[in-house]
Structures are given as C-alpha cells and as structure tokens.
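To start, an entry.
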Amino acid sequence: MSSLVTAKPVTARDPFFDNAKYLAIVLVVTGHLIEAHRDAAIVHALYFYVYLFHMPLFIVLSGYLSRQFTFSAGKARKLISTLAVPYLIFETAYSLPGLILYGKFNLTLLEPYFLTWFLLSLFLWRLSTPVWQQLRWPLAVALGLSLLTGMSKLPDELAMNRTFGLLPFYVLGLMLRPEHFQLLRRPYMRLAGALTLGVGLAAALLVHAAVPTEWIRWRLSNSEIGVDDLTGTAIRLGLLVAGAVLVAAFLAITPARHTWFSGLGAATMYAYLLHGFVVKIAERLELGLLLSTVLGLVAATVLCTPPVRKLLHWAVEPRMSWAFTPLRRPA
C-alpha cells in the first residue's frame, strides 16, 4: 500500500486523488503538532476546524477506492499485508518508548494507541464493503448506526466508537462515482468550495469554545461527554453533515493537474504512521507554535519522500508473500 488509502492497481494514477491526500496529510500532521498550543483561542479554533474534516476526507477516499473489494483470497491477503501487519508493527513500535523511558511495556493489540486506530477501523470497514453494496439505502443505515452507537459506551477494543461513529464517511465514499468528482472539478465549484471553507472557518471561530474537543475525536459516547442522547444525536448529526460538506469543499479546491507534490500523495501512509514519533519528540522539546507549524509542514513532506519509503518499506508496506500459500488457479 503506497498511500493512506489504497486503490485498485491502475496503469496511470489520477493526480487529483494524490494531491488531495498530500494536502490532507499536511493538515493531519500539523494538527497533531499544534495540539499542545490549543490554550490559545485562535489555535484551538483552527484545530477544531481541521479536525472536522481531515480524517473524514481520508475515510471518504478510502471508501471510494475500496469499491472493488470482494471476499477473495487475493483481497484477504492484501488486507493482512497492508493493514493488519502494519498495525501490529506500529502498535508495538509506539509501545517501545514507554519501555525505554519508564521501564513499562504496555501493549494492548485490541486497543489501538494514538493514531493506529485508523488502520484497525479501515480493516473492519473494508471487510464490511460487500454488505453495504447489497443494501438499498446503505448511507441511511450507516448514519443510523453512527447515531445509535453514540448512545452507548462501547468498548475501547477495536476503536468501536470511532469505527461506528465515522462509518457514514466510508459508506459515502463507496457510493461515489467518478462523475461526482468530475462535478467538483468544475470552475464554479472551485469558487463555491473556497467560499464554503471560508464560511466553515468563520463558524469554527464562533463556536469552537462552546464545543468540547471530544466531539471531534469521535471516541466517547454522549453520556461520557456529558450530554443527553437527544442533544448528543443532534450534535453528531451536525458534525457528520459539516464534515461531509467540508470534505466536498476541500476536494473542490484541490488541483486536478499534476503538481510537485502529486508523487508525495502516493505515499501518505508513511507520513501518517511515522509522524507520531515526530509528535512525541516535539512534545518533549516543547516547541513554540511557529516551529511546531513549520515542523508539521516539513515532516508531512519529508516522510512521503522516496528515501523514507525505501528505508521503511518493510514496516509500512511489508512484502508478505512468504507467509501465504500459493494461490490456486481456476481449473
């Protein structure tokens, strides 16, 4: 897997999707690095704004690029080698600093640590793909599940709150077709997208202080955040709608042509899985806001480059053919 979302192999990559993934990973990495400065109102507002749509964007693209997933030996092997094995590797890797610094090795494979939740959730979403493709109203069902599960305190295992809470974005991606993205590339949609993002930022500046940060992290139930189910359901629905609108707006302003960073967008999984180490180091150094922002931009870019991919291919994109039996060819 050479990106945060894995597509069916094609002869020529569409730079539009790679551009979107690179720009989104910049938001993810920078967002994590400025998190320590959220005491400042403007930083908290920007943090809140970015978190409304940066992971929903990756999840929508994941769904779109998973439309061809079926239950087959080849697909099962791909799930294991591109999601399950990297998950085990990075769950272990992120547990090692605790052993080195504090003499404690706390490895809980079913409870994803920090950013590895996305791999586990994507594994489960992709497994469910054929089910959603058989339903008449898949998005309505996914939306209902998302809202209903917010009423219960789900186990931390398998990142259940996030897996169900963010499920509508994956199913939305499954429902999209190439013509929908073509529509977003029209000139008037670019202007509409820019205006929508501007309005979204203005709204975030107005409401961020009144909205607990946990809402945009999707990891707790309504009662754990401190609201009744009616209020919580309304907030969750609003966040889902806002996320979808901002994802569409972001894609509308994404360049469709080949750019200097298009090639980097093909390797965003590297930046996603590796930037957590940068974040942990930056926290100990207590960098200022400006340095944290610059570091986010640099790290997101450098971690997608060919040298990093070559050095850490074994962890992010492990070759697992040795672990599988030979595929049987049809008689």
Summary: The longest helix spans residues 73-102. Confidence is low (pLDDT under 50) at residues 6-11. The chain is about 65% helix and 0% strand.
